[in-house]
Amino acid sequence: MSTQNVDVENLEVTGKKPEGDGAKALNFADDVTIVVSQAFGPTGENLVGVSDVTFDGFAAITLLVRSGDREEQVHLSPIHGDGRKKGFDGLANGSKCELLCPVSKKPLDRIGKVVDDGDAEYFAIYLTPKLDRGSTIYVSDVWGHHHSRIVDNNELISYWATAEADVE
Q1: 95-147 pLDDT, tens per residue?
Q2: How many separate domains does the chain show?
């Protein structure tokens, strides 16, 4: 799998591999890339594979996005750090969006703001059907703001550099 679309400049290396229930949702391709294989909305609907859209052969994470008077499904790459998405063409970067489950149409659960991250607020995509905030993807409500975070067992999980030995 190519990592040319992965934003390695903005990924943090924690050195801790995922454990617990959330680890079941994360696959490690090529021993360095995190791929989300299951993700759940606010009432437990699986958001992976809702459509036939894929990125590098992996099923997309689908959200329903509203901005202004527009509403459309947006398909996100399940590869952590990959900013590719399909849908909502023409929306200006910086636009605030409402993020909803495409199945139930309910808003994603609000996590809140992160210090020094502008107007962006984060919303929860859960990694397990338990809907536990300790195993979550934090996704931004600002279009074009690619600073999502993956949290597993309350530990920030990101990207292992090819020189993983340097972290140990």
Answers
A1: 999 999 999 999 999 988 876 667 889 899 998 889 988 888 888 899 987 76
A2: 1
Helix (H) or strand (E) holding 36: strand 33-36
CA distance 100 to 123: 10
Angstrom CA distances, 135 to 8, 103, 131, 150, stand at 22, 21, 8, 8
Domain that residue 15 falls in: 8-166
The single-letter code of the amino acid at 74 is V
Gyration radius from the chain CA atoms = 15
| Single-letter amino acid, residue 85 | K
Indicate whether this model's pTM tops 0.70. yes
Class of residue 112 by CB neighbours under 10 A (exposed 0-12, middle 13-18, buried 19+): exposed
